[in-house]
């Protein structure tokens, strides 16, 4: 077990030592006379196949660009270095951020959309899916009327995000559309081979995620043949891994083992440790299914060692920890059993922190209360061990206690949001029948008499008439609306308007505006099924908010729940009505 961990740590350290660095980089003599096109072609040939060579070519492109002051080479150099580092689980963000800054005001067929694409891709590698989506949407808007290839490529990237959050049914049509687009280009002799083969891999992987393993195998086979036909092996190893996953679920166990063993060398060479961890996990599962327990345990241990070295955990590998806990329990090895209970808790906490799998139903054999019970039993049995072990147990118990508090607080908060969403929906239904919003109901009451005001009667009634018109025409959904702009639109004094809102509405301008917007979007979501399918960012924009964060905060403050809970409840009610 320790041997496995030591081997993997040595591999990681070695790769860190030999990694190319932009700082102080010198172009090798063999590349000094290569043109930009030759270097780009060389990079494309080894991309995803040999990360060390890919980074060497990328650094050379950047260096040549700076020496010749060629902006296109500089941009491509930053883009390629960022991408290679992201694939190697290194920090590519400084290069992506530099590219964003440099191309901010540069308009071409590729930029600045391409800079947004690489930034979103790196955020995806970091499991920051919401942030990644924002950059992909920006890239799609920038590319829409300028670069059709980029526009469809971003569709594929959004499909990958949906796959990562288990929205597999929604992702599949995006991959099919992208595949058809790239295939048509190849058939018309104007396509990009790498993009075309990549579209086949995305489709094969999506069919696998949708549990259509025969279809996945079919497209893996197509992809392998196309790699050989066009002499482009960028995705070759990934097709073999995908084929292995399909073989496992189709119970072709020996074929699956052959697949997984054959990709190990390439993943190590490319420092693709995440996919290496996945292949080790499936080797463990396959050996388990063929009654080769010791080999299975060995590969589950390798998966754990890699995951901890990277501090990255995937839900697909989670039950490997459950298998290790069961194994050491059967072997009556309490120390190792306790160790992997702790590892499982830690893996869960990292995944929860990354917000990757919130509201997704992931099967868990060991739920938190059961693990806590087992944990306490083990601690009691090991209480008389040496002092170092006792300190270890105390620390681990505190960790479990903290995680338990976080777990139950989160669950309590979720229940509160769900309960508040139900109450909110009932109120909205009542308001909807009356065709009044909450704010409009308050205004109707206020119309009966004038409150005490420092404004003259003339100013008061003039502003009141204009405010009523402003609310009825939904002027509040205008983005970036300020008190000064509204005063200008209403042709009134800014201070008079502020006083009117403070005195008549009992709140400041920001509170007043946010309540109008939230009440408006509550009814819109209730009555407009299509709007519910939008992203939170898009819904925020519809309501007049400049970003999703300010919208969610205002929604939570005013309603006591979150937009996602309210929308989910609306969808559930809609489904029930449909089935009825």
UniProtKB/TrEMBL annotation:
Residue ranges of every copy of the HTH araC/xylS-type domain listed in the record: 477-569
InterPro entries named in the record: Homeodomain-like_sf, HTH_AraC, TPR-like_helical_dom_sf
GO molecular function term, any single one: sequence-specific DNA binding
Keyword Transcription regulation: yes
SMART domains, per the entry: HTH_ARAC (SM00342)
Swiss-Prot/TrEMBL keywords: DNA-binding, Membrane, Transcription, Transcription regulation, Transmembrane, Transmembrane helix
Keyword Transcription on entry: yes
Matches recorded under SUPFAM superfamilies: Homeodomain-like (SSF46689), TPR-like (SSF48452)
Domain of life: Bacteria
Transmembrane segments: 389-410
UniProt name for this protein: Helix-turn-helix domain-containing protein
Organism: Kaistella flava (ex Peng et al. 2021)
């Amino acid at each position: 077990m320790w041997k496995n961990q030591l081997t993997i740590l040595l591999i990681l350290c070695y790769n860190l030592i030999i990694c190319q660095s932009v700082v102080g980089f010198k172009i090798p003599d063999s590349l000094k006379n290569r043109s930009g096109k030759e270097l780009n072609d060389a990079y494309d040939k080894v991309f995803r196949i040999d990360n060390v060579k890919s980074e060497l070519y990328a650094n050379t492109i950047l260096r040549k660009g700076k020496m010749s002051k060629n902006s296109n080479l500089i941009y491509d150099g930053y883009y390629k270095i960022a991408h290679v580092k992201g694939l190697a689980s290194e920090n590519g963000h400084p290069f992506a951020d530099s590219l964003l800054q440099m191309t901010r005001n540069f308009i071409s067929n590729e930029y600045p959309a391409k800079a947004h694409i690489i930034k979103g891709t790196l955020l995806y590698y970091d499991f920051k899916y919401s942030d990644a989506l924002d950059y992909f949407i920006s890239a799609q808007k920038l590319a829409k009327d300028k670069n059709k290839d980029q526009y469809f490529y971003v569709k594929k990237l959004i499909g990958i995000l949906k796959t990562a959050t288990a929205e597999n049914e929604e992702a599949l049509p995006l991959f099919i559309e992208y595949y058809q687009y790239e295939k048509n280009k190849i058939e018309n002799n104007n396509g990009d081979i790498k993009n075309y083969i990549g579209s086949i891999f995305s489709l094969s992987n999506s069919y696998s995620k949708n549990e259509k393993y025969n279809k996945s195998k079919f497209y893996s086979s197509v992809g392998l043949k196309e790699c050989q036909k066009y002499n482009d092996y960028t995705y070759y190893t990934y097709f073999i891994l995908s084929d292995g996953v399909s073989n496992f679920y189709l119970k072709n166990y020996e074929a699956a083992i052959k697949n997984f063993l054959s990709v190990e060398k390439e993943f190590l060479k490319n420092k693709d440790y995440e996919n290496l961890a996945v292949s080790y996990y499936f080797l463990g599962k396959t050996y388990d299914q063929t009654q080769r327990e010791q080999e299975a345990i060995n590969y589950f241990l390798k998966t754990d060692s890699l995951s901890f070295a990277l501090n990255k955990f995937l839900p697909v590998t989670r039950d490997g920890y459950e298998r290790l806990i069961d194994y050491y329990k059967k072997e009556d090895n309490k120390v190792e059993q306790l160790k992997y209970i702790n590892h499982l808790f830690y893996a869960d906490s990292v995944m929860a922190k990354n917000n990757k799998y919130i509201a997704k139903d992931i099967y868990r054999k060991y739920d938190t209360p059961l693990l806590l019970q087992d944990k306490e039993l083990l601690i009691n049995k090991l209480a008389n061990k040496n002092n170092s072990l006792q300190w270890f147990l105390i620390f681990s118990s505190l960790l479990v206690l903290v995680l338990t508090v976080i777990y139950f607080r989160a669950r309590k908060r979720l229940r509160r949001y769900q309960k508040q969403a139900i109450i909110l929906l009932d109120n909205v239904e009542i308001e909807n029948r009356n065709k009044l919003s909450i704010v409009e109901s308050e205004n109707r009451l206020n119309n009966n008499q004038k409150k005490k005001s420092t404004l003259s009667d003339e100013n008061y009634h003039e502003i009141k008439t204009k405010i009523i018109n402003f609310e009825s025409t939904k002027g509040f959904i205008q983005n970036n609306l300020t008190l000064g702009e509204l005063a200008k639109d209403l042709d009134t004094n800014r201070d008079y308007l502020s006083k009117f809102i403070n005195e008549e509405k009992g709140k400041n301008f920001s509170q007043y505006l946010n309540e109008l917007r939230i009440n408006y979007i509550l009814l819109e979501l209730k009555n407009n099924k299509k709007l519910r399918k939008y992203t939170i960012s898009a819904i925020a924009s519809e309501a007049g908010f400049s970003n999703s964060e300010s919208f969610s905060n205002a929604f939570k403050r005013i309603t006591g729940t979150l937009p996602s809970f309210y929308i989910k409840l609306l969808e559930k009610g809609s489904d029930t009505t449909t089935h009825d």
